[in-house]
Amino acid sequence: MDFYNTRITEGERVLVYTCLEPTGPYLNRLLDMERLRTVLFGWVASLYEVDGFLHWGSSFFKFNPYEQSCVCMNTEAYTNYNNDFQSQLPAGDCGIFYPHFSGAISCTRLEGHRIGFEDLELINYRFLYRKAYETLIKFHRLFSFY
What we know:
By secondary structure, the protein is α+β, with helices and mostly antiparallel strands. It is 36% helix and 12% strand.
């Protein structure tokens, strides 16, 4: 945290990134995780003054994502008979929106991100509003006294 807090203090932007790890009770956006985790990215970003989230693999599909949710980084298809676990990505790691004949369509994980980052904007607005209000009170107490 010291490293990130120093970056923020020096005026740098801090962004969060996830990938196929960590697993377990961490914030990530994999297919088998609760949708709430993707919403919480925005909330945690507010708590730690993070500016945003970097997406890896918004639509990295080597195969039909409607037929296969796990993807291998090499060219072989994932099958129950030919597992290549060293290069296999967890379900959902490779995409948060899917191809469609009319264009890309979002998934609930992407919608969760949207909700969480809309919440982040509201939270940040409230903090800015509170700081502005506290400053205003210092200079103006009544309509008849300023």
